[in-house]
Design goal:
Layout (H helix, E strand, L loop, with lengths): L6 E5 L2 E5 L28 E8 L2 E9 L4 E3 L2 E4 L1 H4 L7 E2 L5 E11 L14 E11 L2 E9 L2
Parallel strand pairs: 1-3
Antiparallel strand pairs: 1-2, 3-4, 4-6, 4-7, 5-6, 8-9, 9-10
């Protein structure tokens, strides 16, 4: 099994790839069938969400997919207005309550399976954990992994 690509989060001016997937918290009838068009083994869910945390709110800014949508730079970009008619460049993730783990520090090496192949997502020295309630960041903590 291939390590899966994470969503992209911009927080305090830095970009992070993280395994937190706020779009998955939407009711399934609100989501296009991304998986049916997945053609990359590192992204079986069929999309990568792009997010920013601005003024303590979680915003969806872009969705890249492998499906038959508007082509942009080799990837296809879903028009946010197709899913969210109220979208004006970005969408407040008011549906999302959960944690976003942003990896920080060095990668912690894991043991491999003996064949030199790594299947687990990399671990990091620490994580900035954003506690989100209805799209609003209500707490920020640092989690040390060592």
């Amino acid at each position: 099994m291939t390590t899966q690509a994470g969503d992209i989060f911009v927080y305090e001016g830095k970009s992070y790839e993280a395994g937190s997937l706020p779009l998955e918290a939407l009711p399934k009838h609100r989501l296009p069938d991304f998986e049916s068009s997945a053609c990359a083994t590192d992204c079986w869910r069929g999309y990568v969400g792009h997010w920013e945390i601005d003024a303590a709110q979680l915003w969806l800014t872009r969705i890249e997919t492998f499906g038959p949508l508007e082509v942009n730079g080799g990837l296809r970009v879903l028009a946010l207005r197709d899913m969210f008619p109220e979208a004006d460049g970005r969408v407040l993730a008011a549906w999302y309550t959960g944690k976003v783990y942003l990896p920080q520090g060095k990668t912690i090496p894991d043991e491999d399976d003996g064949g030199g192949v790594m299947f687990l997502p990399p671990r990091h020295e620490r994580y900035c954990v954003l506690h989100v309630a209805d799209g609003t960041v209500i707490e920020v903590e640092t989690l040390h992994n060592i």
